[in-house]
Design a protein that fits this description.
Number of helices: 9
Strand order of the largest sheet: 3-2-1-4-8
Helix content: 40-55%
CATH architecture of the largest domain: Alpha-Beta Complex
Number of strands: 11
Shape: globular
Distance between the termini: 31 Å
Largest sheet: 5 strands, mixed
CATH class of the largest domain: Alpha Beta
Radius of gyration: 20 Å
Strand content: 15-25%
CATH superfamily of the largest domain: Spore Coat Polysaccharide Biosynthesis Protein SpsA, Chain A
Number of domains: 2
Length: 292
C-alpha cells in the first residue's frame, strides 16, 4: 500500500468504470469514491470486496465539490484526482510521485496523453498554464490551504478556475512526460446510446435531462468564470455573441426540432441566470435529493 498518495475518483452513474479501476488499483492505493448519483448498489459492492476503498454517497453535488469533500478525508501527502473514464498506465502514478518529490511547491502535476509522447522530450518536466484536468496529482496541504475548487461552480470551468487560481498564486502546473494517460472524449451526444462521457443512464429520459442541464451549466459557468477573472464587461462581450446566436436559433427550432429548441432555451437561461448573479442551481429532475 502506497503511503504517499490517495486516489480520488468522483463518480456519477459510472459503476462499471469505477469497478474496473478498483480491480486494478485498490490493492496498491487508498481510494476515495464520491458517488454523486447515490448508487447504493455500488457502495455495497465496494464495501464487500474492496477494503482499501471508502465510498461516500451524495446527491449530485458536482465535480469540484466532490473533490473538495474527498480531500478532507485524505491523510497522505498527495492525492491523485481522476475522471472515471480516464485510463492510467503501470508507471503513471509512480513517475508522478517521483517528480513531485523533486518539486518544492506546485498547484498540480499531471501526465500527458500517451499519443503525445513524440511531442515532448523524454523524462522531462514541462511547465504549463493548464494541464489535463482528467488526471492530476496535487499536494494535499496546498490544496486545502487555497480552498480547492470554487464551491460555486457545479459543472464545467471548475478546472479552468482552479488553474487560474494556481497561476495567480504562483503555484506552478507541470506535465511529467514519462507519465501517461488516455481519456476518451465524447464530442457529441449519440441518440441511440445511453452513454454520455463517463456516465451510463438507465433510459433516454435520464440522459436527455442531464444533457439539457449540461447546456445550462456550460453557459452559467462560462460567464461566471470570465466575470471572476476578467470583469463583468469583458465577460459580457465574450458571451454575448453566443447568447444572441442561441436566441436566433431557438425560433426555427421551435417549429422543426423541439428537442434542440429546448436545449437552446436551457443555454439561454443558464447565461441569463449567471448574468444577474443567480447561483448554479439547475439540476436534473432524475437526481436524488439527498442532503449534503
Amino acid at each position: 500500500m502506497n503511503k504517499l498518495i490517495t486516489l480520488i475518483i468522483p463518480s456519477y452513474r459510472s459503476k462499471k468504470l469505477i469497478i474496473a479501476h478498483l480491480k486494478k488499483l485498490s490493492n496498491s492505493y487508498k481510494i476515495i469514491i464520491v458517488e454523486n448519483s447515490y448508487d447504493t448498489t455500488l457502495k455495497r459492492i465496494i464495501q464487500n470486496k474492496y477494503k482499501n476503498v471508502d465510498v461516500y454517497l451524495k446527491k449530485n453535488i458536482g465535480y469540484g465539490k466532490a473533490v473538495n469533500f474527498a480531500s478532507k478525508k485524505v491523510k497522505t501527502k498527495y492525492f491523485f484526482v481522476m475522471n472515471p473514464d480516464a485510463k492510467i498506465y503501470q508507471k503513471t502514478l509512480s513517475n508522478l510521485i517521483q517528480a513531485a518529490k523533486k518539486i518544492n511547491r506546485f498547484g498540480a502535476i499531471g501526465p500527458i496523453y500517451v499519443h503525445q509522447k513524440k511531442d515532448y522530450k523524454k523524462n522531462s518536466v514541462v511547465e504549463r498554464k493548464e494541464i489535463i484536468a482528467a488526471a492530476m496529482l496535487i499536494d494535499t496541504k496546498i490544496f486545502k490551504k487555497i480552498k480547492g475548487y470554487d464551491k460555486n461552480i457545479f459543472l464545467y470551468y471548475e478546472d479552468n478556475d482552479y488553474f487560474a487560481k494556481c497561476n495567480s498564486l504562483n503555484l506552478k502546473l507541470y506535465y511529467i512526460t514519462n507519465s501517461f494517460i488516455t481519456h476518451k472524449m465524447v464530442k457529441q451526444m449519440k441518440k441511440n446510446s445511453l452513454n454520455l462521457h463517463s456516465t451510463t443512464f438507465s433510459n433516454s429520459a435520464e440522459k436527455n435531462s442531464t444533457y439539457l442541464i449540461g447546456g445550462w451549466h456550460g453557459q452559467w459557468s462560462k460567464f461566471y468564470f470570465l466575470r471572476k477573472y476578467r470583469g463583468f464587461l469583458i465577460a459580457l462581450l465574450i458571451c454575448l455573441p453566443n447568447f444572441l446566436l442561441n436566441l436566433l436559433q431557438i425560433i426555427p427550432y421551435i417549429f422543426f426540432d423541439l428537442s434542440k429548441a429546448k436545449y437552446k432555451y436551457f443555454k439561454i437561461e443558464g447565461f441569463l441566470c449567471s448574468l444577474i448573479g443567480m447561483p448554479s442551481f439547475k439540476r436534473s429532475k432524475f437526481d436524488k435529493k439527498y442532503l449534503y
